[in-house]
Amino acid sequence: MGNSASPVHEQKTYGIRPEAKDFPMMCVLSFVYVCNAQCPNCPYTNSSIRSEYIDTPFMSEASFKIIADQCGEYGAWVRLSGGGEPMLHPKAVELIVYAKEVGAKVGLITNGSKFTKESITQLLEAQVDMIEFSVDAADSETYSKVRKGLNWEVLLNNINMTIALRNKLKSATKIIASGVNQIGVDIDKVARFWEYKVDNFQKRKYLTWGINDPSESADTMAYLPPEEFIPCPFIFERLNIDSKGIVMVCGFDIAAKTNLGNIHEKSIKEIWHSEEFEYYRKKHLEGKGNQIELCSNCPDWKYRSWKHNYWKIVKVSEENKEKRKKDKHDKST
Q1: pTM surpassing 0.85?
Q2: Among residues 191, 207, 243, 325, which is most buried (max CB within 10 A)?
């Protein structure tokens, strides 16, 4: 692709996705700011951001339930991502189950190290929509480097247990694995290792978040041509919320430099339709997103595809899961 993007990543027109007209399709939560790994590709490992949340390392139950209740009303996604390992939250399972009970969709991104048979059974019985294991490797040697602090055998055992329990319980949960396409990792080998075990394997771009070293990327081809300032899809579909309840304008702003409001003071819907949020959208739709300081400094904008995204991953994962179920049924009859 180089400086020209494939049509698969672009659209003829841009704006709020129809599903996000009233409420964001997804609320991405920095649920925790603690982690049991020191992954070299993690912007939190490579910055002092976590120290700024030493007073609120875990999202409170009250904050989470406010978000879950509002997402549930619109059938929106609560996505547990960023900050640290979500399963280190002392009430992780209880709160995730709550989100499902009130009607929200739930996507959990995890390093897979803290699952027990009891915890994963509860999540599967609650019909968590998707569990994504960040694996990044196909062997223990590579894993020890890219997922420093974690254990390869624990990962394998926990993913195998999750898949087996999902199938036994006939849970609707989709199970995927992901790997960052970074120097020192044969991402095709990683894909081959995992794609027959899980419902889908996602090759992730190496993102810098303005913090990581861009030279560590093994795939720098752009999805959106940088010189054209095509609108970033994030501000038209989702928002990010930190452990304090502060809403940031997008996922790039992991240090919460922007503050569009607090969920304890305004509803998510109010924030989504606020003048502040509309300012970002208007600038992007005018092709002037580069005039916004945050956006002009975003090295990852070119990787924000309108079509190769989370929604595509969900769709393909569901299709693969159903196909495997059918194939298994056909073989047994």
Answers
A1: yes
A2: 243
* Tokens matching residue 191: 């894909």
The DSSP-derived string for 173-234 is -EEEEEEE-BTT--HHHHHHHHTTTSSEEEEE----TTTS-GGGBS----SS-GGGTPPPGG
Tokens representing residue 75 in the block: 């059938």
For residue 319, what is the enclosing H or E element? helix 310-332
For residues 227 and 296, what is the distance between their CA atoms, to the nearest angstrom?
11
How far is 59 from 79, CA to CA, in rounded Å?
13
Cβ contact 286:295 at 8 Å: no
> Which element (helix H / strand E) includes 131?
strand 130-134
Could you tell me the mean pLDDT of each successive run of 10 residues in the chain, 333 residues long? 57 95 98 96 94 96 98 98 95 98 98 98 98 98 97 98 97 97 97 96 94 94 94 97 96 93 98 97 97 95 94 94 80 68
